[in-house]
Amino acid sequence: MPLPGAGFRCTVLALTLAAGAAARQDGGGAAWPGRLEGVRNARPVSGFSGPQGASVRARVLLRSGALTRAAPDALAQLQRYGVRRVVDIRGLSEILETGADPAPFGRSPMLVHLPMVVETQSPDPVQAYRDLWQQNRAAERGLLELLADPANHPLLVHCSDGLDRTGILVAMLLELAGVPREQILDDFTDNDGTRKVDAAPLLAVMALWDAHPGGLAAWLEQEAQVQPAVLAAVRHYFYSAELLSEPAAEADARAELARVETEAGKGRYEKAAAGYAALAKKQPQTAAGRIAARRAQANALLGWSWLVRSGPSANRVDVVLLGDGYLLKKQSSFDKLAERMPEDFRRHALFGEYFGYHNFLRANLASAEDGVDMGGREYSTALNGHDSGAAQGQVAVDHKLVRDSLAQLPEQDGLAIVFVRAGTLGTGGGGVAVIGGGPSNTVFHEWGHAFAGLLDEYSSDTGARGTGRSGINVSDSADGARLPWKHWIDAQVPGVGAFEGADGRAKGAWKATASGCAMDSGADFCRVCREQMILSIYELVDPVDACAPPPHPDAAGDPFAEPLPPLRAAAPLDFAVQPMRPSRHSLEVRWWVLPAADVPPAPRRRGEFLHGTRRDRGPLAPIRAEPDAETRAGKDGWHRFRLDPAALTAARVRVICRVQDSTKLPDEDHPWVLRDDDGLLESERAWWVEK
Question: What is the spatial distance between Cα 273 and Cα 263, in angstroms, rounded to a whole number?
Fold first, then answer.
């Protein structure tokens, strides 16, 4: 899964080091106005002393408080200055309370929401700052990735007052740029009189940087999964023009990197490795050259290739297949193994039904050696395959190395299946399923751990487990009222009960079915585990894959939504949605035409992240009226609805389409999901229409 608190699907940075980028940054745009009416602490981050006597460049970064109360002229001044991207680091609840930035700065594509929030606010300012820094890796990484792309310059980052959260991020950037600490602290405490700012909390954060081996840059690489090329690009663009390499060199290096990546994607791995080494030697100062240098190492990512692309990654479960312990000359062995996995998923009873909800990407990792660390012998491999220390010698890998590899891919969800060439059995958790050797039923067992958080249902001892625990599919009590799967028992579903022997214990742990579940030693999942797997799929996949025309989001659910004008019903209006398509059953599609007064309220998102999982949205409010239509899909998979203006009974109506997966298959006695507390199986699109 994404890093804790990330709250959005991950995509790797595409470095756009196009020719002329440097000239475009330094030229064009009005001068900085000096003051923005209604905006606190607004100023460029530039002019500081950097390495070799250089200074931090203008027109790269601006900082300020929120733009919510900005005067119209202030917004016009920002537009004239040429702001291309705005990063709002306020939490969602804060934005809903105080207001989003006005258009265009508070709207996509200019706006990026990267909230800096903490689980519990400490009353001690020093500890509060430490928490802000340590609990917001996603925001720190996201800002760096945006700044590494010159197409986003000038970029404006802001919180509410433009002091604390913004101050930490700006201090991070100045530290990376080599600005002396004295200047960083002076900038941090400088403000327009909003309130006094004490340097002590920032000094505490700097102490965290200093305590980490390698300092801030190493912390960002190792703890926040920031790519070295991203850090290099940020430094590159922060320096004065005389320290920049020629834009033409950057463009040439980037083109060569793309060519080498294409070779790797075609399976020409040794040729790709040689190409990376040559590029790193020829263009070491370019961003592409630094990426190539990393991939030329003995343990490195070589390239990637889509095996199955069912649909856009934004609405699919992206499963990345990785290998550990595969030498450069043995990549074809991993390729054959990886190519089997999509078909194994397709044949599986559960995953076959929802196969079209998944994409599969093969990412090739070269390892210097092909062993697994155990018995005092260590091997140099890409993901540090090792004996987990469990009783049965299950193989494990370093999850940080897995996340680092995933971060280099074009699109991914933080989910991986790792095959360790010389390993045995497997382990799973945190989005990573580790398999020793080749494909087997172990894959689905470990995927249950990694993807859905399911627990083992073994009744025999598989290693030290500590005290008893409960989870989705395991209970530490046989009390029917406390069983997590009580709703299945209440529905009197045959075969579901409380059976002692689970979680690697013969006594003191109970599971829902006597035997046969993939979380024990079976091939398929029991009803309880299958239900959770489906809910986990829908946590990432919206039942609505596409719609037309563009819908009108409710501002209560999305304060950043673009306020589109209502549709005019001067003639019949056509609406269409394309639901997701399971293999053996269809999603239900219903349409309503409701007067404005009868429209149900939009769900208020949970948490602080606008772009969280679908679970954060919460269930949709019920619609009391009967639907105006229930439609079937055409041959192209689209459902269509036509609105006749003559049938409108109000001057302003909302056309609502709701799509729901009943999970009821034709040959099943019960739906596959009985309880959906978060409304994951249902989605809607809606449009305002006026006569």
Answer: 9
Q: Are both 617 and 508 inside the same structural domain? A: no
**Do both 64 and 147 map to the same domain?**
yes
H or E stretch at 217: helix 215-223
Distances (CA, A) of 571 to 550, 565, 638, 646, 648: 18, 17, 22, 9, 12
* Residues 191 and 267 reside in one and the same domain: no
Q: Which domain holds residue 282?
A: 247-295
Round to whole Å and give the CA distance between 620 and 628.
18
How many domains would you assign to the chain?
5
Cα–Cα distance measured from residue 657 to residue 547, given in angstroms and rounded to the nearest whole number: 10
The domain boundary, picked from 295, 328, 363, lies at 295
Q: Can you state the angle between helices 287-295 and 269-282, rounded to 10 degrees?
A: 140
Are residues 471 and 428 part of one domain? Answer: no
Beta bridge pairs of residue 86: 111, 156
Residue indicated by tokens 């905006």: 39
For 174, left (φ over 0), alpha (ψ -120 to 50), or beta? Answer: alpha
Q: Which of 665, 580, 612 is nearest to 357 (CA)?
A: 580
d(CA 142, CA 655): 36
Q: pTM here?
A: 0.86
Looking at the structure, tell me whether residues 415 and 314 fall in a common domain.
yes
**Spatial CA neighbour of 172 closest among 186, 158, 188, 156:** 188
What length does the chain have? 691
Closest CA to 229 of 257, 262, 208, 265: 257
pLDDT along the chain (691 residues), means of 10: 35 37 49 91 89 79 95 94 95 88 85 91 93 95 93 94 95 93 93 83 96 94 87 82 60 93 96 97 88 95 97 96 97 96 96 98 97 93 93 90 92 95 92 88 94 93 67 94 96 95 92 95 95 97 96 77 86 97 97 96 75 82 96 96 93 97 94 97 96 89
Domain final residue pick, 395, 413, 440: 440
Burial 585-601 (b: 16+ CB within 10 A, else e): bebbbbbbbbeeeebbe
